[in-house]
Amino acid sequence: MSRIFPLLVALLQTTILLGQAPPPEMPSPFPIQKAERDSQKTQATHLREAFEQGHFHGHFRSFLMATDNARQLSDYSALAVGGGLHFSTAPWRGFSFGIGAVFTYNLASSDFQAKDSVTGAVNRYEIGLFDVRDPVNRSDFDRIQELWLRYQWKKSRMTVGRQSLQTPLVNQQDGRMRPTAEIGAWVEINKIKNTRIAGGWLWKISPRGTVDWFDVGKSIGIYPKGLSPDGIPSGYAENLTSAGVGILGISRHLGKHINVQTWEYFVEHIFNTALVQADYTRPLKNGHELLLGLQVIHQDALSNGGNADASKSYLPPGSRSNAFSTRAGWQKGGWQAVAAYTRITSDGRFLAPREWGREPFYTFMPRERVEGSGDSHSITGRVNWQADNKRLRLEAMYGHFYLPDVKNTALNKYAFPAFNQFNFDVRYRFGRPLEGLQAQFLYVWKGRLGDVYGTEKYVINKVDISLYNLILNYTY
């Protein structure tokens, strides 16, 4: 861990530089930003005025990450800095235009090409700050993140081009330097009272931790691919064909306390996933509130799973999986406590391309997933508190994740042992003169519950590990 301290010095220097930026109002660095919403309120009378009344917004980000693996296994660290600049016009006759670019620099890091001397494994977490496909690259991480044309009518709109979506299975998963983005056509309809309909067709994806754009089939397999059900390395990377992803989501408020949403993901030639989720919030006495939630997911393989050669398909033809997740909690003022449980049945492995987004389960904890497992149980508890002024937020989360045996590859794609995990997350938003600056510290510890048969390849970058994350965000 001694090599982390020089990175801390560099991070403090970065903090000083960010603190010198002017303190305008802080928007989110994600697609539906305050600046963009403001630009939509002003209707231009001609095309030139649409650009003159447009809005610029941007962000800077500094990310220090370190991995402390067990015993004699390799440790890693990295410091990344970067940012983005975005522009959107005011609407003219319902049309608006947006463009945005992001960039990242590797200020210091471990050697991502080096293999662990015991297991032969390579880095897992820090490389995601840069380009997982090019571990040698240390500087060229720029990407046109947004490039879209939008038409808006009343409260509805359609967007075509490069954009970053936020849905249960295709989402930004912005736990590194830049979020996942997509190219496609996306429609949001808000004409029915208490109902929101969203959907579209995507034909290219640029996953988090990459700089290139990929056809839908080629985008699956950029991250670690795990094992096929028969235990050999999965061969679907760069071997899947698909015309695109069709998504349809409907969200509706039923009375004052219940919200129900349904989502359908049709990945042509590969798989179909359906999700239904219901959330219930019930006010109690003296400002207390009851929180309940239920989520059900069903997945089926389509056609031949992406390739006629079974060794190169994403999932076996005819396979399916089922999962459900539930939560119960309480909140009052700035306090919230939630317990959650997820069950993936023994029908098959639940698969969701990790390149496209994080999994939607109530038990999800940052820095790990149960995607790729079947016949698994996850149990988590979470407590968070937020100060009255909304500046300071603390969260502690603990979970047990009971996965099949590491040798049961039919139900454990990544040969991941059962584990327990603890997260501690601290976030602080600065006021003037540093308004717009937010700091976050995330500590993650993962222990081992399952048998690893004395084999360190089941341990490195998986369990018996501590992860340190120190992040600075400045938005304007």
Give a short overview.
The protein has a domain at 164-416: Porin, CATH 2.40.160.10.
Please identify, by name, the CATH architecture of one domain. Beta Barrel
SSE series: HHHEEEEEEEEHEEEEEEEEEEE
Separation, N- and C-terminal Cα atoms: 34 Å
Overall geometry? globular
Structural class: mainly beta
**DSSP strand content:** 35-45%
The fourth-level CATH homologous superfamily of one domain is Porin
Task: Show unreliable segments.
Answer: 1-35
Largest sheet, strands/sense/barrel:
18 strands, antiparallel, barrel
Q: Can you tell me the CATH class of one domain?
A: Mainly Beta
User: What is the average per-residue confidence, as pLDDT, rounded to a whole number?
Assistant: 92
Count of β-strands = 19
Share in helix: under 10%
Helix and strand layout, with pairings?
Layout: H1 4-19, H2 34-41, H3 47-52, E1 55-68, E2 76-88, E3 95-109, E4 143-153, E5 156-163, E6 181-189, E7 195-206, E8 214-215, H4 216-219, E9 245-254, E10 258-267, E11 271-283, E12 289-301, E13 320-332, E14 335-344, E15 376-386, E16 392-402, E17 419-429, E18 437-448, E19 465-475
Antiparallel strand pairs: 1-2, 1-19, 2-3, 3-4, 4-5, 5-6, 6-7, 7-8, 7-9, 9-10, 10-11, 11-12, 12-13, 13-14, 14-15, 15-16, 16-17, 17-18, 18-19
